[in-house]
Amino acid sequence: MMEMWTVYDHPLDYPDGFAARKCVIGVNTVTHTDEMFTGDTLDEVRALLPPGLYRIHRYEQDDPKIVEVWL
After folding, report:
1. Strand order in the sheet with 55-57
2. Contact at 8 Å (CB) between 1 and 25?
3. Cα separation of 31 and 38, whole Å?
4. Residue 29 and residue 41 in contact, taking contact as beta carbons nearer than 8 Å
5. What integer pLDDT is reported at residue 2 of this predicted model?
6. What share of the chain is helix, strand, coil (3-state, %, to 5)?
7. Structural domain boundaries of the chain?
8. Fewer CB under 10 Å: which end of the chain, C or N?
9. Nearest 10 degrees: CA dihedral of 26, 28, 31, 36?
10. Rounded CA gap, 53 and 4, in Å?
11. Distance between CA 4 and CA 20 in Å, rounded?
12. Are 3 and 71 in contact (CB under 8 A)?
């Protein structure tokens, strides 16, 4: 199992700031959890993420609200 945190810029359900949402990736499964961090700035949300993660920039075809993904 691997954790993945997706960071969003002013998503529809949190329009006042940034949000990071956790999902768990397993063999042939992706489970979206209820775990979420929010903050007024991108740096605030990044500071709340667990240590030791690696940042991946968003892909051009990703939802425009996605800023980055952390694995």
Report:
1. 29-39, 18-26, 2-9, 66-70, 55-57
2. yes
3. 20
4. no
5. 92
6. 10, 50, 40
7. 2-70
8. N
9. 60
10. 9
11. 10
12. yes
Structure-block tokens of residue 54: 């690696």
Identify the H or E element spanning 43. helix 42-48
Pairing of strands 2-9, 55-57: unpaired
Q: Give the SS3 label for residue 55.
A: strand
pLDDT tens digits, one per residue of 11-67: 999 999 999 999 999 999 999 999 999 999 999 999 999 999 999 999 999 999 999
Model pTM score: 0.92
Amino acid type, 50: P
Q: What is the DSSP string of 15-41?
A: TTSEEEEEEEEETTEEEEEEEEEEESS
